[in-house]
Amino acid sequence: MQQFLTSVLIESGPESVPYVESSKLLIRQHLLDLISCYPSLNPKTATFIHNDGCPSINLLQADGTIPMDYHGVTYNIPVIIWLLDSYPFHPPCVYLNPTPGMIIKRPHAHVTPSGLVSFPYLHNWAYPSSNLVDLVSELTASFARDPPLYSRRRPQPKQSSPLRDQSLSRPFQHVHHHQQSDDVAVVYKKEAIDKVIRELAELSLQRVLRRREELRKRSTEG
Fold first, then answer.
1. What is the pLDDT of residues 4-59, one digit of tens each?
2. Alpha-carbon distances, residue 14 vs 7, 11, 17, 58, 206 (angstroms)
3. Does one domain contain both 101 and 205?
4. 3-class DSSP state for residue 83?
5. Cβ distance 147 to 138 under 8 Å?
6. Residue 193: pLDDT band by 50, 70, 90 thresholds?
7. Residues 64 and 95 in one domain
8. Do residues 130 and 221 share a domain?
9. Is there a single domain that holds both residue 34 and residue 106?
10. For residues 58 and 18, what is the distance between their CA atoms, to the nearest angstrom?
């Protein structure tokens, strides 16, 4: 994932992501921290279509599920977190992404009928302290107080309850199986290799961004 994010952020051309060069290292770190805490979210690129008629653009997003605890049961809430071109100076755009077996609760204090999420952490977004991990943490706590999704009624519905649908996946289990089967030396070796990969990817991105800045200054001076 480190290599994927690095390649996306250094890419140039019509399909490149439009983020400010000086913010790309922070964007990369925000996404790496996010998937470390919430592995059920998957960073990818996709085309974002504006509702106001502006041209569509290629953006980064985190697509997947976030956990929601409700009455002692953990449910997986499908979401898409779009990193708009103004990120991280401005908040991301968060949408619920319900499956065919789900419906959005109407009315809901923080979710529109179209699935757009609006709640205090987004409203109070403050660069550079605000980040994706804290965003999802606040979001799961908010949804636990007021679940945004319900299962669709069936021909013989039982008593309604949030997300009571057999088609829903079970909560994501944060279990590191390799630590149970591998000895300590092997685990340390894997962690060391992962650290080296992260550092090399970050160094590569830093060099590319620094080179671009040098070329920009030369063209300005010329």
1. 999 999 998 888 999 999 999 999 999 999 999 999 999 999 999 877 767 889 99
2. 15, 9, 9, 9, 22
3. no
4. strand
5. no
6. low
7. yes
8. no
9. yes
10. 8
Better-predicted residue by pLDDT, 158 or 52: 52
Same domain for 139 and 205: no
Domain end call among 159, 174, 189: 174
**Measured distance CA(10)–CA(8) in Å, rounded:** 6
- Give Rg (Cα) of the chain: 20
- Return the bridge partners of 104, or none: 149
Two tokens at 15?
């399909």
Mean pLDDT, all residues of the chain: 83
- Do residues 136 and 169 share a domain? yes
Number of domains making up the chain? 2
Quote the tokens at residue 194. Answer: 């992962």
Same domain, 112 and 154: yes
Q: What is the dihedral of CA 154, 156, 159, 161, to 10 degrees?
A: -20
What is the per-residue pLDDT for 52?
73
Domain coverage including residue 99: 2-174
Statement to judge: residues 131 and 199 lie in one domain: no
Residue 168: give its domain's CATH number: 3.10.110.10
pLDDT class of 170 with cuts at 50, 70, 90: very low
Cβ-Cβ contacts under 8 Å for 17 (sequence gap 6 or more): 8, 9, 11, 45, 58, 59, 60, 85
Would the pLDDT of 157 be above 60? Answer: no
CA torsion, ordered 94, 24, 205, 13, to nearest 10 deg: 80
The residue behind tokens 């008593």 is 159
